Amino acid sequence: MKRETIHGREVYVFEDRPSTIMEAFEKTVQNYPEREAIVWNNQRITYLELQKQVHQLASWMTEYGSIKKNDRVALLLGNRPEFIQMFLACAYLGVIVVPLNVRSSKKELLNMIEKAGASMLCAEGDYAEVVEVWQASHPTNSVIMTNEVPLNKPYTLFDHIFEAESSISAYPHIREEDPLYIMFTSGTTGEPKGAVGSHVNVIHSVLNYSQVFQAAEPIRTLIAVPLFHVTGLVGQMFYMIISGGTNVLLKRRYQTGPYLDLIEREKITFLFNVPTIYIMMMSHEEFTSFDLSSIEIMAFGGAPMSPETITALMKALPKSRLHNAYGATETTSPAAIMPRDYPLDKTASVGKAVPTGEFKVIAETGEELPAGEIGELYIKGPMIVHEYWQNQEAVQRSFDQGYWKSGDMAKIDGDGFLYIMDRKKDIINRGGEKVFSAEVENILYGHPDVMEAAIIGVPDDIFGEEVKAYIVPKEGKNPSPSAIQTYMKEHVADYKVPKKIEIIDFLPRNPGGKILKTKLLQLEKQT
């Protein structure tokens, strides 16, 4: 590695790297033309077939869609082949992709499409109503729909495009710092900001994953995380495309039985999930009857995983490796990854800085803190986005001398392992004593009847704030609040023990699996 200026910041970079996504994709096609790139439902698409489809789409977009470099194309698609095909076609054209969170409301979707100034919309049939509203006010703009749309609608279908030959003779020149996508942060609070990811951001993120994981080839991943989220997009989809792996896409939302069956049938080697998925896998009544020996890597993020769960997974799948990972939309997926063969006493950590990443922990005074001290985590590297779409105020607020201010309170131990303690805004102040969520939640996750847990601060007349815990029990378990409080008193100081405990069916999360504590605070106000 060497130091180089990327997006105006001096950072560590990989010297031997492709300059663009297209260069990386073409190399993969050349090396593995007959290897499966995408598996979805009954479709199996090789890299050579995918290359043809991508060029057909790019040709149609140029000739009939009047799309040119730096235009924006919005994707209102779930995890399906058309998402990958369109993303790559746009990359060739220098067109900026806007992957939309399909779980958003109609109003939110239309707002994001307008903010991005999209010139084209690609959608599946479930979102035809959004398409109709958008096209009514943009009648000259093009729409591409998946093939289940009624034939009487005035939209172009993907299948019709794939029936034509590509007529494109040349593509525009693309630089590695050119924008690749605008991803609206699903954040844990506030108005979504459009983080602009570039080719160089994605390429360095994938190379960081590759260097840490050192996965055996060929890699086959099963994607349950939405592709419109940075984990699914970069941590799985682009990781496979650049490394020559296979993207196996879930046709419908996660269900444990079919998920385990797909792992067995498709010989999946790489998973990336929130911890809850792994807990549900092990809790499935037929878990031991599935052959899961193909799994080499189980990555996770978005929430802590208790040492008990980690130990149980290692025992159940001894040939597999567990890697915690920490990142955000702004870090283009990974900022920290747990290294191979980490000591078990580090299981509360989210890992070490990725090879091209740099961390510093900053006090409220602005001074850099030494190892072991808690402050706000600042992150730097070529994988960090450099702007928010048409929002210079947010850029000035979020960056400092080349570092992105994460908003996470963290500490780094003497061995370089990173520990996320809390969101800066979520620290609970109980009578002058600071309570960090991570410490309390990690203990709650260790309770044998608890599957998920989250704490918030609630108003208290005496202490200002008290600790309240929301608990999702494991299937078939019914822990009492008093039993959980007794358990907690054995592990933490009394002021950290939740005074209130509420048992709920699920925790609200964003698409990346991070718990939305703003929703829990709203729930508390309603009660």
UniProtKB/TrEMBL annotation:
PROSITE patterns: AMP_BINDING. Keywords: Ligase, Membrane, Transmembrane, Transmembrane helix. InterPro entries: AMP-bd_C, AMP-bd_C_sf, AMP-binding_CS, AMP-dep_synth/lig_dom, ANL_N_sf. Residues 25-389 form the AMP-dependent synthetase/ligase domain. Residues 439-514 form the AMP-binding enzyme C-terminal domain. Pfam families: AMP-binding, AMP-binding_C. GO terms for molecular function: medium-chain fatty acid-CoA ligase activity. The keyword Glycosyltransferase does not apply. GO terms for biological process: fatty acid metabolic process. The chain crosses the membrane at residues 83-102, 222-242. Signal peptide: none annotated. The keyword Ligase applies. Belongs to the ATP-dependent AMP-binding enzyme family. PANTHER family: ACYL-COA SYNTHETASE (PTHR43201), MEDIUM-CHAIN ACYL-COA LIGASE ACSF2, MITOCHONDRIAL (PTHR43201:SF5). This is Acyl-CoA synthetase (AMP-forming)/AMP-acid ligase II. It comes from Thalassobacillus cyri.
